């Protein structure tokens, strides 16, 4: 299983860049709880992060820390090479350290153009079985349409940095059953019966796919 991340801009965070702020500390705690939850409950092993904003860096640092305990992998999917040129020196150093330690670093579009953001976002959502959206109001922000579309076929976890709440757009209680629906046999994906979920949940579960590269 693969998890991808969507984050909000730095200037929308109430604590700005102050990582000593209690709200920032709590946000990181909630983020780590959700990542560990996915690893332990749904067997997520592959994480894809866009590295666009500081919240992405928080998630990447947590994954690299947890990699010492769990067999997980981090992919940094960059939209173009010059994306950090206006960042502070501190954030650039954090960014570069994460890239040096990531398992995979992929540049989706080598040069900045009008489609770079959309193309990167599409790659992020198409690649993830589960999406963690670090957004204060994902239904109104720019990625709301993408999330609404993705929620029809995959699980969405919304972590709100303003009120520090977690919402499962598609209940993770059904995801262990979703994993059982597809079983890798002889290199092929074979569908098997699941009877423990409701008809509605099972229909949604059948749209979840086990990432063949894991």
From TrEMBL:
- Cross-referenced Pfam families, in alphabetical order? YpsA
Protein name listed in UniProt: Uncharacterized protein
- Source organism of the structure: bioreactor metagenome
């Amino acid at each position: 299983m693969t998890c991808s991340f969507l984050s909000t801009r730095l200037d929308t965070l109430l604590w700005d860049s102050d990582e000593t702020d209690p709200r920032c500390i709590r946000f990181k705690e909630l983020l780590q709880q959700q990542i560990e939850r996915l690893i332990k409950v749904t067997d997520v092993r592959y994480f894809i992060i866009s590295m666009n904003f500081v919240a992405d860096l928080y998630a990447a640092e947590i994954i690299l820390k947890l990699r010492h305990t769990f067999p997980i992998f981090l992919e940094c999917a960059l939209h173009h090479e010059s994306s950090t040129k206006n960042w502070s020196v501190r954030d650039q150093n954090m960014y570069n350290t994460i890239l040096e330690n990531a398992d995979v670093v992929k540049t989706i579009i080598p040069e900045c153009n009008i489609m770079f953001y959309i193309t990167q976002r599409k790659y992020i959502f198409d690649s993830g079985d589960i999406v963690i959206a670090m957004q204060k109001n994902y239904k109104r922000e720019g990625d709301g349409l993408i999330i609404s579309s993705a929620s029809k076929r995959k699980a969405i976890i919304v972590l709100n940095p303003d009120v520090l709440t977690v919402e499962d757009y598609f209940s993770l209680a059904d995801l262990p059953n979703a994993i059982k629906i597809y079983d890798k046999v002889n290199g092929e994906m074979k569908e098997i019966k699941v009877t423990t979920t409701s008809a509605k949940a099972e229909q949604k579960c059948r749209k979840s796919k086990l990432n063949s590269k894991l």
